[in-house]
Design brief:
By secondary structure, the protein is an all-beta fold. About 0% of the residues lie in helices and about 60% in strands.
């Protein structure tokens, strides 16, 4: 899978989404067709996120370990890989070192 390196003709929300005392930060991007994405980074550590809508998390750089709510399996994702999270659910994510950069797409 090839991840985009840029988006053209978008609206970017300049106010950052900041979580866990600044250890997870993203910006919201609205594509020309109205599709919403967030682009962000996660510093080393362990975090849990809940979802409203289904999401696809694409790893742009770095790596992370993920466990989806209700599951016990721990999966590792590296640059160029993705995982999907059901709506009204959640996931635990661990970045063992460095920074994990991601694109989050909200699926219909």
């Amino acid at each position: 899978m090839s991840l985009p390196t840029h988006y053209s003709g978008v609206t970017v929300h300049t106010k950052a989404n900041v979580y866990f005392d600044g250890k997870v930060v993203s910006h919201t991007v609205i594509l020309a067709d109205g599709e919403k994405k967030t682009l962000g980074l996660i510093y080393a550590g362990s975090y849990h996120f809940g979802t409203g809508a289904p999401e696809r998390m694409e790893v742009v750089a770095g790596e992370c370990r993920v466990t989806l709510d209700g599951q016990t399996a721990l999966a590792t994702y590296k640059a160029g890989e993705h995982f999907d999270v059901p709506g009204k659910s959640g996931f635990s994510i661990e970045v063992p070192s460095g920074i994990c950069e991601y694109i989050c797409s909200y699926l219909a």
